[in-house]
Amino acid sequence: VGFIDWNLMLDMYGGPDHAGPDECEGLLKCGSDAMLLINTTSGAIYPQVFYYYMAHFSKFVPPGSIRISVTNSSSLVEATAFLTPTNQTTVVAMNRNDSPLNFSLYDNTMASYLTMQLPAHAIQTIVY
Fold it and tell me: Which among 69, 74, 61 has a CA at the least distance from the CA of 104?
């Protein structure tokens, strides 16, 4: 399984786009969003939220990892897990809610719990 983001980097107006510059009004009104926005005048690069979300996977889920089963007892937390080539388990959990949530992770193979709090609108990676 793979993922590709069509727009890795765009300018501050969401371009280049098929619409001409006279058809755009304001920032991101004409084009799309991307992981990175660049100010084409100054060259400054602005990472967007999705850039940091993707970092959890690209940094902690190396090539050759295998997705393993996760049973989620709450619809408030989204989670996925991987077994890495070095036999580490990586769990990525996300809280889409407006308030912090308590999150418990139980690993059947280790018969142990890890309990933590996920901040509102946060993503966290656990590696063990």
Answer: 74
CB count within 10 Å of CB 31 equals 19
Residue-by-residue pLDDT tens, the chain, 128 positions: 555 667 788 888 777 765 555 665 555 455 567 889 999 999 999 998 888 888 999 999 999 999 999 887 778 889 999 999 999 999 999 998 999 998 888 888 888 888 899 999 999 999 99
CA-based Rg of the chain, rounded to a whole angstrom?
A: 19
Classified as helix, coil or strand, 113 is strand
Cα gap 11→9, rounded to integer Å: 7
